[in-house]
Predict the structure.
Amino acid sequence: MNNEKRIVLTGFMGVGKSTIARHLASILRTEKVDLDAVIEASEKQTIAEVIETGGIAHFRKIETENLKKVLSEYDARILALGGGAWTIAENRRLIAAQSCTSVWLESTFEHCWRNIKSSKRDRPLARNKEQAKKLFEERQNFYCLTDWHFIIKPDLTSWEIAKKIAEEIFSVKFE
Ligand code: S3P
């Protein structure tokens, strides 16, 4: 594959997109950007505050605006999306228009849920297990539209997962 292409990581909340993006950037000696972090910096609010004050539709609008900005203005080769960004058709169109390589970090709901529960981050869409599970199930149909599906085995560390992605997608050879 074209090694200059930007890589976009998606997957459900708690799957480890941001951490894997950080390790992958270090392995590939490149930069990474986190869409949620860009939104928090531009809005001067946490994601939870943006959703709580403006509602989810407002958040999605801001998310798309910031995705446009990142895709057109940022050089970072690795982009970690928030878990809902890929489910929006307009966002997928923007990503495809830039010929990015999209990767679904796929895992079980229970694995994601364990990480959500142990994380300090407030995720308004995952405060309740039943609701989060419903969202998880609805989203499988969108996530599977990515170029690559990468199954996360819970016994692997984020570093090991990033190494495997680098090997399989970027043909990086490790000693
Ligand atoms: C969301 C996921 C979150 C964040 C927001 C909405 C979602 O990001 O963008 O709370 O709709 O799945 P993470 O996937 O990094 O938790």
